[in-house]
Design the sequence.
């Protein structure tokens, strides 16, 4: 983490006895980063670029982040979605130095002791997965470590968080996929997942141990299974500073896209009707935050519920269905059941269609045309990833709505030429939210993260989309200005946390200066 390679000055080389161990040239970090970018351009595939960057992170962390800072928009799809999905599938085959902490359930009863093995004692950000639902790929067990590693890389590259304050963690509680367990290069426990009682006891010990060993930390839960994501959030959110990015981060990003769409149309959030394809934890988390935004504008709870419907593999969620989970029940519609998505659209006439189903291509031409039939500017948001799980492509959305849609996807799509206008489709990536939340938590030392924190983050993000992008149907800021956008969101969220009395430090005279003073820059280190 201290390595600067050929950026060490002559004075640094005297101090650290590096003369003779480096070539004579003293190079700037910018120059070194440009060399890395040239090497990446020479790679034949994104997975090759991922492996190159992973090796760089192991031996020269500052250069890794300097390269990301030089081309964050271009490298985000390499270090995170969609490439990280492929990397996780192959993680045992490409694993170099083990990055982060692996906590197998066989260490139950010793987690406080083991966490103290981490060499940096002042951790503020713990991103943890149990590998049970990696993106749309299912149970990858310990191979899921690529997710917390990638998320924390974005904390630093996009949010400016010092990497010494971050810990990626995989809780290895087994894997239920025999093909993963039997892979000769699999690095996790070769056993099925732990029974529920044993699993929850291990999670309880982990959360308590993190609070003891890293008392200033915030726990970010990532890619936990459908059955555990909601359960664990409800279990811990009132006890410790934590959040689930798949539920709350996704909700804030999706709400921000819809709020930006409202700006483009000159409408209020309370005027929207939102139909979800997918009715799991992510969908219900988004729906809850949309409902909160509507109520914040004066709508009743009943109006907010009526304005949101959900459609899953069994059809429209209705009051008559007996298979709904408790968190789905509020979104059971009082209407005739249907298993045809187009019929659901024609009956409800949604202003926004949100995909969180991982059903690739489900927003087919007929679906998109019917959205355009009922809306002058339909909001189309296929948020599933990786790319082959996206409900539709950007090109299909724009073509089937005659270029009128307000679009954002969960996965990246190439630049489009729409009638002579060049449009870079918006990607509703959680990176627009979670690094800003983390930076705000660090700036305020918040003791809890409430739903209102995510609502304010969504509002702040939506406010930053310029009219020039809204005019061409783009719902998020340009990724070229991502770092500044996240700083502004962190400032807004920090202000809210201080106003709400959630902070554990005194309010500074200048919140903006305070937040900006906490950011880390790989270019400024001198050795």
Sequence:
């Amino acid at each position: 983490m201290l390595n600067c390679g050929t950026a060490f000055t002559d004075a640094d080389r005297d101090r650290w006895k590096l003369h003779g161990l480096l070539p004579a040239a003293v190079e700037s970090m910018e120059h070194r980063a440009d060399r890395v970018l040239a090497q990446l351009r020479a790679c034949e595939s994104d997975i090759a670029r991922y492996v190159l960057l992973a090796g760089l992170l192991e031996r020269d962390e500052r250069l890794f982040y300097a390269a990301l800072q030089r081309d964050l928009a271009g490298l985000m799809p390499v270090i995170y979605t969609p490439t990280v999905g492929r990397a996780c599938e192959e993680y045992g085959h490409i694993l170099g130095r083990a990055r982060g902490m692996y906590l197998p359930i066989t260490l139950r009863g010793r987690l406080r002791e083991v966490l103290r093995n981490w060499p940096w004692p002042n951790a503020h950000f713990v991103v943890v997965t149990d590998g049970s639902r990696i993106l749309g790929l299912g149970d990858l067990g310990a191979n899921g470590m690529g997710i917390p590693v990638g998320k924390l890389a974005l904390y630093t590259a996009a949010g400016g968080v010092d990497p010494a304050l971050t810990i990626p963690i995989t809780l290895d509680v087994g894997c239920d996929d025999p093909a993963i367990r039997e892979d000769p290069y699999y690095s996790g426990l070769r056993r099925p997942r732990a029974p529920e009682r044993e699993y929850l006891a291990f999670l309880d010990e982990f959360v308590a141990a993190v609070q003891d060993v890293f008392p200033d930390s915030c726990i970010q839960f990532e890619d936990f299974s459908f059955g555990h994501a909601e359960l664990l959030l409800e279990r811990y959110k009132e006890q410790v500073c934590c959040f689930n990015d798949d539920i709350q981060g996704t909700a804030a990003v999706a709400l921000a896209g819809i709020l930006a769409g409202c700006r483009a149309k000159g409408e209020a959030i309370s005027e929207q009707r939102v139909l979800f394809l997918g009715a799991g934890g992510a969908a219900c988390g988004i729906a809850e935050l949309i409902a909160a935004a509507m109520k914040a504008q004066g709508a009743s709870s009943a109006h907010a519920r009526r304005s949101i419907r959900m459609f899953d593999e069994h059809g429209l969620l209705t009051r008559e269905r007996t298979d709904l989970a408790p968190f789905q029940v509020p979104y059971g519609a009082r209407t005739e059941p249907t298993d045809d998505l187009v019929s659901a659209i024609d009956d409800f006439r949604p202003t926004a269609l949100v995909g969180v189903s991982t059903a690739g291509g489900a927003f087919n031409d007929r679906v998109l045309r019917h959205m355009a039939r009922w809306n002058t500017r339909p909001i189309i948001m296929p948020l599933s990833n990786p790319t082959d799980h996206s409900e539709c492509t950007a090109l299909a959305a724009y073509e089937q709505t005659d270029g009128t849609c307000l679009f954002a996807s969960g996965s990246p799509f190439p630049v489009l030429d729409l009638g002579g206008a060049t449009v870079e489709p918006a990607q509703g990536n959680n990176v627009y939210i979670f690094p800003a939340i983390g930076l705000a938590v660090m700036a305020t030392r918040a003791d809890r993260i409430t739903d209102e924190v995510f609502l304010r983050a969504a509002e702040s993000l939506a406010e930053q989309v310029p009219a020039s992008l809204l005019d061409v149907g783009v719902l998020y800021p340009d990724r070229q200005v991502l770092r500044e956008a996240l700083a502004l969101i962190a400032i807004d969220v920090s202000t809210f946390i201080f106003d709400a009395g959630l902070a554990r430090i005194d309010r500074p005279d200048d919140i903006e200066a305070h937040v900006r003073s906490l950011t880390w820059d790989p270019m400024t280190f001198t050795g």
